[in-house]
Design a protein that fits this description.
By secondary structure, this protein is an alpha+beta fold. It is built from five helices and four strands, in the order αααααββββ. The chain has a four-stranded antiparallel β-sheet.
Length: 151
């Protein structure tokens, strides 16, 4: 009887863990806002903690190379839309304003960020525009690089 009870609790525990592994919609917005806030206040190491592990190092190195701690100013961000798919990814559309010294011209971009649900947490995987070019999505394997048609 004890062995059956133990197996039952083990099975229930694993079943519940599997249920918690589903993407948590309520956790998406705080993850998005945390990344934007950390970038806005130049907490790039903190922002990197919200990026998929395989892209963190290149993000930090790029911030150091670009001198973003003193030169990048994210002046505003607005979350516009978020769509979550059943495969555990979310496409998030934001408007971001920034400038990077020595330029004083503010840039505005509509940025689509892809967040992925892993290990019970949302992680930023890529951004298609904005002040962080190293977060650009990897080209799809079936897409050929654009050929330079010449002038």
């Amino acid at each position: 009887m004890t062995r059956r009870t133990t197996l039952l609790f083990l099975w229930l525990g694993l079943s519940c863990a599997g249920l918690r592994a589903k993407p948590d919609v309520d956790e998406l917005k705080p993850s998005i806002e945390a990344f934007h806030q950390r970038a806005r206040w130049k907490d790039f190491r903190g922002a990197a903690e919200l990026i998929v592990p395989e892209r963190r190092t290149s993000f930090i190195k790029a911030r150091t190379r670009a001198g973003d701690e003193k030169d990048l100013f994210v002046t505003n961000f607005d979350l516009e839309d978020a769509k979550i798919s059943s495969d555990g990814t979310a496409e998030v559309v934001s408007h971001i304003n920034w400038y990077r010294l020595p330029s004083n011209v503010e840039k505005t971009a509509t940025v689509t960020s892809v967040f992925v649900w892993r290990e019970g947490k949302w992680w930023l995987e890529s951004q298609d525009d904005g002040p962080f070019p190293e977060l650009a999505p990897a080209p799809k394997k079936d897409e050929a690089p654009a050929a330079d048609g010449g002038a």
